Amino acid sequence: MPAPSSFDYAIVRVVPRVERGEFINVGAILFCRTRRFLAARIELDTARLYALAPDVDLAEVERHLALFPLVAEGGESAGPIGKLPLAERFHWLVAPRSTIIQCSPVHAGLCVDPDEALEQLMETMVHLSPPVVRNRVGAGFMVSAITLIVLSVLALVWAWYRFQTPFGAIVLILTLSFLLGAVLWQLWMSRSPERPL
Asked: How many CB atoms lie within 10 A of CB 130?
């Protein structure tokens, strides 16, 4: 297994209103000097951007973001900056800006595969995790339900052997009705799962 290599990275952000300081993460840049690796990946969530700034110029934002992978890759398509060495292109990409496209401070890490590390950055820093669905069926309900069933069975046995009269039948009917109602209520509540904001 190859030895881990150190790398530097920064997160690309869109800051629609610089004066407010609100932003969304839209990409990542990773530079690994020992592996001669420099890459940038951009994935803009337009719905989140519009939620943050409905009047944003989306075409302008996308045009500026498209330059990050081009400069990281280098070559003629990136213009004069694309001809610079890897380290200089990385420092140009992560240089502080006061525009709506900004980068986070540069951080360091260790990796065996820079491309895999970049993908991991995208997963943890850019992609949104799927919403957690929490049904109303919880551990508390399960404990209560089990306790209720055990007590109901004991009550039925006691009523039947103690009275062996219509009273036992009444207790049986009431208990079964209560249990059925509790189950139906729980099924109805579980149809409306709670989703955290």
From this structure: 6
SS3 per residue for the chain: CCCCEEEEEEEEEECCCCCCCCCEEEEEEEEECCCCEEEEEECCCHHHHHHHCCCCCHHHHHHHHCHHHHHHHCCHHHHHHHHCCHHHHHHHHHCCCCCCEEECCCEEEEECCHHHHHHHHHHHHHCCCCCCCECCCCHHHHHHHHHHHHHHHHHHHHHHHHHCCHHHHHHHHHHHHHHHHHHHHHHHHHCCCECCC
Report residue 177: phi and psi, to 5°. Answer: -65, -40
Which stretches of the chain drop beneath a pLDDT of 50?
Answer: 136-137, 192-197
> Which neighbouring-strand residues pair with 42?
27
Taking only the tens place, the pLDDT of each residue in 4-53 is 999 999 999 999 988 888 899 999 999 999 999 999 999 999 999 999 99
Kindly give the pairing relationship between strand 101-103 and strand 37-42.
unpaired
